[in-house]
Design goal:
The chain starts with 5 loop residues before the first strand and ends in a 9-residue tail after the last helix. With 97 residues, the protein is mostly beta strands. It has two helices and five strands. Helix content is 10%, strand content 38%. It has a five-stranded antiparallel beta sheet, with no helix packed on it.
């Protein structure tokens, strides 16, 4: 099989719903574990793939897009975190007017 672009070849899912996969891109092959993203469950670090199943072989999927997740979201600045207790209390009252 000559791969055009990035292609995923799947095995059957196990009891946890995870499937083993071979990711083929040109002359490179990588082995991966795939599982569905489920609403309400936290995302883990790694790559998230948008896949499209091929009509001629349901075990072969084309990778349409890839998103990499790494570490928690930055929801505030380091200056804000450093002064959190001063702003909202907690700890000793050394900053009280």
């Amino acid at each position: 099989m000559k791969a055009k672009g990035k292609v995923v070849m799947l095995t059957s899912p196990d009891e946890k719903g995870e499937a083993k996969a071979a990711i083929v891109q040109e002359d490179k092959i990588a082995v991966a574990k795939l599982r569905l993203v489920e609403e309400g469950k936290p995302l883990v670090d790694g790559d998230y793939l948008c896949l499209r199943r091929r009509k001629d072989d349901p075990r072969v999927l084309d990778i349409r897009d890839t998103v990499t997740i790494g570490g928690p979201a930055m929801v505030n600045s380091s200056k804000y975190r450093d002064n959190f207790d001063r702003i909202f209390g907690g700890g000793e009252d050394e900053y009280v007017n």
